[in-house]
Amino acid sequence: FGDDKTHDRRARVFMMSAHNSTANVKECLRHGSSDYLVKPVNPDDLVNRLVLHMQKKRQIREASSNETTESGIALHYMHLTDLLMREGLKLAPAPTAIYNILGMLGLATGAVRVSAVEADATFTQATVRGSNDKKDIDGFVIDLVKYPEIVFVLRSKKLLALDNLKNDPTMAAIATQTKSISFNAMVVCPICLGGEVWGALSVRLPETKTSLSDFEIRFAQLTAHVIGSIVARSTKSESDEAA
Fold first, then answer.
1. Cα–Cα distance between 81 and 55 in angstroms, integer?
2. What is the pLDDT of residue 177?
3. pTM of the complete model
4. pLDDT by residue (tens digit) across 19-42?
5. Segments of the chain scoring below 50 in pLDDT
């Protein structure tokens, strides 16, 4: 990947292997592979992954202290951040705290669904730990083959922000051929515990809203950090009780 001067840097390279060890996946991604698929490859999974990587990714600029033209928006999100942190510091049970926080993020972004999932070790399945539109969903298991954007974030530990597929005629044409591809604009953030990926936060927008602002994306990222803190606190509490 890295030393071949003739390699077209615009190309997306996928690794396909029967080996699914975490070390193999990390090594391939480190050397420049865009994704890693385990054999035998599910055709729907392959198409969804290809579409995901063909989409244009949002570049989120770093926050600046001199953004005076956006001071009103910044103040609004500072207020939301204060509410978010206060909710995270409450000693409510983890499912309740996560549900409340996801509801706040959903209202702030106008999302149709905001979910937090805990992934298994192989990133093939995940357990839903909270959703803004259903309070009693904790424990519901999903197949991550249907969610390539979540798998990408889990493996890369990187935030992913995508605008609505309908904005890109090529992507829209491809999406009509595969019913499993979503048209929603979205942002997906990794949720980490102690530097390791625990799961992901997914924010999906209605088709009428084609993109998220930088402030909304940062707020989603902060929400993921707060959820990670809640999960870590809950895990420690359960460990102390067991001891």
1. 30
2. 63
3. 0.73
4. 877 788 888 888 878 888 888 888
5. 1-3, 5, 63-68
Tokens of 132: 């803004």
| DSSP for the chain, written as a single string | --S-TTS-TT---EEEES---HHHHHHHHHTT-SEEEESSPPHHHHHHHHHHHHSPBP--PPP-TT-GGGHHHHHHHHHHHHHHHHHHHS---HHHHHHHHHHHHHHHHT-SEEEEEEE-TTSSEEEEEEETT-TT-TTEEEEGGG-HHHHHHHHH---EEE--GGGSHHHHHHHTT-TTS----EEEEEEEETTEEEEEEEEE--TT-----HHHHHHHHHHHHHHHHHHHHHHHHHHHHH-
